[in-house]
Amino acid sequence: MKLDELFLLAKQGESENLEFKKTTGQRTAAAKTVCAFLNGHGGYVLFGVSDAGKISGQKISMARFRGTSRLPDFSDNRQYNGNAFPLLRRAESFLLDHVPIAGRVIPGKMIREDNPWYPPPATREALANAICHRDYSEPGGAVSLAMYDDRLEIINPDKFHFGITPDKLKGPHESKPWNPSIANAFYRAGVIER
C-alpha cells in the first residue's frame, strides 16, 4: 500500500472493514479484528492511527548545543522522518559527527586506540529504547537527542507505562516495550537484547 493510499484510508475513518490501533501494543485486539475480517468480507487494521484518524509518524530531532544550556545558539540542528531503522542510523551518524573522540598511541601497537566520549553500544541502546517505547499515537512528538558540552540527553516525549518508575529503572525490572513489534524487529536485527 502506498503512503497516499494510507492517508486516504485514515481520512475515511473506521468502518466495517477498517479499524485503527494507536500502537502495536494493541496487537491482541488487532488479531481479533483480523479474524473477524477473515470471517466476513476482509478489511484493514492500521497501526499508528488514532481513533480520530490521525496518523502518527516516526520522527527524530537532534541538536548540538554550544555550552551547557539549551540556548538558541547551536552548532547543528537536524530533524528526520522515517521508519525506525533509518532514524536509528541517522542518530548514530549524528553522534559520530559530534561526539569527541579521544585517541592515544599505545607503545608496541601500530594503530592508535580511539575512545568516543560516549560508548556507541550505550548510546545505541538508549536511542533504540526511546524509539521502542514512544507512543506514536501522539502526533507531533519526536524522540530527541540533545548534545551539550557536558552531557548527552536522549528524550522520549512519553510517560512511563506498565507501572515502571524512574526508581524501578535503576534496578532489575521486567522489560515491557510499549511497541512490541518495533522491539521485536530491533531484537531480530541485533539492535537490542531482550
Rg over CA atoms, rounded to whole Å, is 20 Å
Mean pLDDT, nearest integer?
81
| The level-1 CATH class of the largest domain | Alpha Beta
Strand order of the largest sheet: 4-3-7-8
- What's the architecture of the largest domain, going by CATH? 2-Layer Sandwich
Structural notes for this entry:
The model has no long low-confidence stretch (mean pLDDT 81). Helices cover 34% and strands 21% of the residues. With 194 residues, it is of the alpha/beta class. A 4-stranded mixed sheet has the order 4-3-7-8, covered by helices on one side. A two-stranded parallel sheet has the order 1-2. It has a two-stranded antiparallel ribbon with strand order 5-6. The chain folds into 2 domains: 3-47, no CATH class; 59-188, Heat Shock Protein 90 (2-Layer Sandwich), CATH 3.30.565. It contains 6 helices and 8 strands, in the order αβαβββαββαββαα. The protein is elongated and about 75 Å long. It has helices at residues 3-12, 27-39, 84-98, 120-133, 166-169, 180-188; strands spanning 18-21, 44-47, 59-65, 74-81, 101-104, 113-116, 143-147, 152-155. Helix 3 (84-98) runs antiparallel to helix 4 (120-133) and helix 4 packs antiparallel against helix 6. A hairpin with an 8-residue loop joins strand 5 and strand 6 (113-116).
